[in-house]
Amino acid sequence: MNEEQRSLLLSSSSRFPPPQGVKLSYGTAGFRADASILQSTVYRVGILAALRAVNTQSVIGLMITASHNKVSDNGIKVADPSGGMLSQDWEPFADTLANARDPEQLVHLIAEFVENKKIALDGAKSVEILVARDTRPSGESLVEAAKQGISSILGAVAHDLGILTTPQLHWMVRARNKGLKVSDIDYFKQLSSSFRCLVDLIPGGIHPSDVDDKLVVDGANGVGGEKLELLKTMLNGLVIETRNSGKGGGGVLNEGVGADYVQKEKVVPCSFGPQDVGIRCASLDGDADRLVYFIVPSRSSNKIELVDGDKILSLFAIFIKEQLSILSKEIDVNGNNDYQCRLGIVQTAYANGASTDYLKQLGLEVTFTPTGVKHLHEKAAEYDIGIYFEANGHGTILFSEHYLRWLETRTTVLSDVAKGSEQHKAALRLLAVSELINQAVGDALSGVLLVEAILKHMGWSIQRWNELYQDLPSRQLKVKVMDRTAVVTENAETVAVTPPGIQEATNAETVKYPRGRCFIRPSGTEDVIRVYAEASTQNAADSLANSVAKLVDQFLGFGSSK
Ligand code: G16
């Protein structure tokens, strides 16, 4: 590192002292904490993003968001050149950097890292970092801190994209690295045109009863509602009413609204109620990377029927499987279909047991990873088509480059020899799905459009979709503890190996309940231990979750349940 670079880093970092007595770690989705202590962390992640850009000679993304967390929190995460999450082998460096005590130590750590990774800092070509934020009030000043970090690396340039959904930023990083144009309009154009393509391919066209068929979307008082308003002006054949769009200062981000609230509490979000009985409703989270659907079943209760990420996954899997099966019939016709697509499903321990049983009954290969899209995404990328979803509504469908190339060639051949055939249409549908669904990360807006297109294709109501299988009753709780890192898990988070004895105690509770299943894990986005329980009745699931939450409190908490 040359002297100019060193003194630039020393002078800028002295303006961003780290918070005292706080240890930060790059968790499930980057750094998250109360926004008031994040200036220094965000500045330092700006440096990291610039180094990553120099190292990869690609465009990198920085998103300022705390997604589903409360409005006073904020956070930052890095999008890699592929548009996916930061390569996991850089996470330890992110931790070290965020926790460096003073400018001298910080510069020393950077110099050491640059040398180890052989990052050609001196004389580096100009590199670009795309920066965006969600609608949190703290976002603007944190973007400034990120820009200061970025410009502390010579040759690195920040490009501020303003307010975006998290998936838009990831999409734009991916697109920029493919040499494509990136703006709100480019993103909306791709989504709306691929949606139109899927709708045009519906057998027999759109059913007349669909014309009045309305979808009501809860925007979590965040960025998603606002963007959906823009997107829907470019869509035909879809009636969307947006509520909780956060405009005009009405409603607080994620408070009594949004996908996390709806999925965990299983009650109607604010602004929804008796008027929505039987209607198709959906909820986005604060930065629109999660999507769940729900039905308000009765006027007399605030309970909902949740159609969660597992059901979205199942709907996508059925549709993809159907297209693959139509396409494979070509083998019989031409004898020259030379490729069998490997379709894989990825879930986490939170997946409802009934969903996994259902997917396996469909003959699909299902694998499990720890929580966090970074893990699911990596696994799904091993397949030709990998579908991953967390029950909380975070997920997408990945198409391998190899398979897409095969599909494009096949579509061209079919268009010459069998234009308009079922096989040709199935190939076109798969290509349209690959354009519609965000290949970088789970995306609630593209997810809504794909769900809507598939329901129209199937001619299904939300009730019909919800009946694919019946969820096992479940309950999720969170427990405040002194140190959540005391819980270490293995086997895709189904077994807690520390603290000693806690897994045995959990097992002893679980066996008391028919179809009981329970696990604990430290959250990577909030300062809590999460408890998930499933059983044959709701009372049993509640009771199992409560007794294990008490155990967690006894082992690690403040003793309130002793
Ligand atoms: C983030 C991650 C998700 C994860 C969720 C909860 O979501 O992207 O993969 O499921 O946090 O994580 P944890 O249980 O570790 O707190 P989001 O929507 O908040 O970015």
UniProtKB/TrEMBL annotation:
Binding site for substrate: 390-392, 521-525, 530
Domain of life, per lineage: Eukaryota
Pathway: Nucleotide-sugar biosynthesis; UDP-N-acetyl-alpha-D-glucosamine biosynthesis; N-acetyl-alpha-D-glucosamine 1-phosphate from alpha-D-glucosamine 6-phosphate (route I): step 2/2
UniProt remark on cofactor binding: Binds 1 Mg(2+) ion per subunit.
CDD domains listed in its UniProt record: PGM3 (cd03086)
Pfam families: AMG1_III (PF21404), PGM_PMM_I (PF02878), PGM_PMM_IV (PF00408)
PANTHER family the UniProt entry points to: PHOSPHOACETYLGLUCOSAMINE MUTASE
Sequence ranges assigned to domain Phosphoacetylglucosamine mutase AMG1 in this UniProt record: 308-460
Domain Alpha-D-phosphohexomutase alpha/beta/alpha: 56-90, 105-177
Cofactor(s) demanded: Mg(2+)
Substrates-to-products reaction catalysed: N-acetyl-alpha-D-glucosamine 1-phosphate = N-acetyl-D-glucosamine 6-phosphate
Active site: 67
Source organism of this protein record: Pyrus ussuriensis x Pyrus communis
Domain Alpha-D-phosphohexomutase C-terminal: 478-550
Group of enzyme by EC: isomerase
Function: Interconverts GlcNAc-6-P and GlcNAc-1-P.
Protein name stated in the entry: Phosphoacetylglucosamine mutase
Position of the signal peptide: none
Family: Belongs to the phosphohexose mutase family.
Cited InterPro entries: A-D-PHexomutase_a/b/a-I, A-D-PHexomutase_a/b/a-I/II/III, A-D-PHexomutase_C, A-D-PHexomutase_C_sf, AMG1_III, PAGM
